[in-house]
Amino acid sequence: MENSKHQARLLGLVFLIVAIASIASALLTQNILKGSIISDQLRAINENELLFRIAIFIDLITGVAIVVLGVLLYQLLNAGYQTISLVALMMYLAEAIILAVSKTGLFELIPLGERVMGSDSSVLTQAEILGIILIDSSQVGWSIHMLFFSIGALLFYSLFFKKRLIPRWLVSWGLTAASLAFIHTIWAFMDPAERMLLLLPTMFFELTLGFWLMIKGFNLSSREQIGVTK
């Protein structure tokens, strides 16, 4: 009983870390790169270099937290569903790696921002081209990492539904949110316009689930509590 409470609280804490770190990084990055003109974005990076570095660092922390989250979910849910759990874990690991790689490349925007300040038109054009490539690559990487997340989340949440470790209404919310994230990702590949509203259910679900696990824990009255340490 006591071990299951600690397990639930640890899992809830990691869910909260992933959710809060993702929100913080997105807000910082979008605030700096809010302009639509690449030269303005590069200048904004130069003027807010520390905040930009912090945003990237938070994303790297998020990647580590995603790995920990995947491992914890696998340990919790693999009994009786080892293949599904393993595939879901692989999705989370791929998500974390792609997120880290796509965000690490953004460090190269910092020297480009320095080159833009006071540069002539030829240097400016070169910096703009490189900046566009780096930002576009990061956005594509972010979409790919969300694809792996949505598939992994659908698999893990379906096991939560089977095992009844948390209320089914909450799991149903998670399944719906992950489905919307999957739709958002596929849609983004065809049309890169912003549709962040489709990701809001996932953000609020992860926050809600994190607090639920830390306060309420697992539903130990369920007979489907396979994999939970008693």
Q: SSE order in H/E notation?
A: HHHHHHHH
Query: Mean of the pLDDT scores?
Result: 85
Q: What is the subunit arrangement here?
A: single chain
Main beta-sheet strand count, sense and barrel state: none
Structural class: mainly alpha
Strand content range: under 5%
Note the total helix count.
8
Apparent shape: elongated
**DSSP E strands, number:** 0
Q: Helix content range of the residues, please?
A: over 70%
Using only CA atoms, what is the Rg? 20 Å
Domain count, please report it: 1
Segments where pLDDT lies below 50 for 5+ residues?
226-230
Gap from first CA to last CA: 5 Å
Task: Describe this entry's structure for a reader.
- The chain has 230 residues and is an all-alpha fold.
- It has one domain (2-215).
- The protein is 80% helix and 0% strand.
- It is built from 8 helices and no strands.
- The chain has helices at residues 2-32, 38-47, 49-77, 82-104, 109-116, 121-163, 168-190, 200-215.
- Helix 4 runs antiparallel to helix 6 (121-163) and helix 6 (121-163) packs antiparallel against helix 7.
- The protein is elongated, with a radius of gyration of 20 Å.
Task: Give me some keywords for this one.
single chain; 230 residues; mainly alpha; 8 helices
Layout: helices, strands, pairs:
Elements: H1 2-32, H2 38-47, H3 49-77, H4 82-104, H5 109-116, H6 121-163, H7 168-190, H8 200-215
Helix pairs in contact: 1-3, 1-8, 2-5, 3-4, 4-6, 5-6, 6-7, 7-8
